[in-house]
Amino acid sequence: MEVKLIARKNVLYLDYVENGKRIRKSLKLENTKANVAYAMRNILPEYERKLKNRISTTENFKLSDFIQKVLKNTKENRKLGTYLAYKHHSEMFLRIMGDKNIDEYSVKDIESYCDIIGGRTFSARLAPISLAFDVALRYEMIIKNPVRIAKKPNCKPKPKEPFSVGVMRQILDEAEGELKTFLYIAFYTGARSGEVLALRWCDINQTHIFITRTLLRCGLFNSPKNGKARQIILLDPLKQYLDSIKSNYGVFDTQKLIVKPAYNTLSVEFKKLQKKLGIKPQTLHVTRHTFASMLMNAQIRPTLVQNLLGHQDLSMTVHYTHFMQNEADKYNLETALKIS
């Protein structure tokens, strides 16, 4: 299919035939040498491609049309938390960048969006947008996915610094109320924050804690992150603490949540406590890193640590562990290097 570039009243137009109908489409570009070169290089080949593949050049498909396809598929085949996250990130992108025709977004648009939102986790925030462009690619509505080509800022996540046993005990001694209960469970199970907040008294027996669900930030319950329930050994310090607070309840409903405040409330209280104790403030997730690091440094079987944390593969468990030196290291090093 031939597409011609013509000029009328000093404005550039495309002139072609589609479905037996002659179309003259204004490019809204002034007839200059630079604009002609741009149109010949970028616009005209795209229209020729669409005509060749019998893709409409007059019907406009918005980014939101493809996002809806992604969200529908996600809702049907992925976890609720993933769907809600995709929905939130999609709404944010459309609110900031606008809902344009799918072929009007450029690599520069994506890079500008990254600059605007700042922070980290660009891959997660752009995931549903990239999937939407992939759908458009499959339908041959576009020839490239600008998200995959765009250069994202190289923002490394802040490294977690797990607490030593001494600092952990200091935190537990100074914590009060619901925060103390949350931290006891988190430090002695390594469970994710949402999993701790979803625990009921009926999820705990004399020997184990059963992780069967997680509490999303929106207040809805969902299955654990990897979709699988697991059980964690109930360690004596945690058992003793839970028994001590259980006696304060008297007759209570075993279906009730053990920890009631929302994540944000506990997060604020935890940072205040760390500042009070002169500790560099970290998020609640550091409890999980502390649990994993202590077990690995105590030479607990890596596969057991993986099972307790609910990781699908061992490589993720290694990511969560941080080597911590202890008093025995000096002796072991000197013994290893001792010259007889």
List keywords for this structure.
mainly alpha; three-stranded antiparallel beta sheet; 15 helices; two-stranded antiparallel sheet
Q: Which stretches are poorly predicted, pLDDT < 50 over at least 5 residues? A: none
Determine Rg (CA atoms, Å). Answer: 28 Å
Helix % is 40-55%
State the end-to-end distance: 87 Å
Q: Count the E strands.
A: 7
Largest sheet descriptor? 3 strands, antiparallel
Shape: elongated
Structural class: mainly alpha
Mean pLDDT: 86
Can you list the strand order of the major beta sheet?
1-2-3
Element string (H = helix, E = strand)? EEEHHHHHHHHHEEEEHHHHHH
The number of helices is: 15
Strand content: 5-15%
What does this structure look like?
The structure is a single chain. The chain is mainly α and 340 residues long. The chain is 51% helix and 10% strand. The chain has 15 helices and 7 strands. A hairpin with a 2-residue loop joins strand 2 and strand 3. Helix 2 packs across helix 5 and helix 13 packs across helix 14.
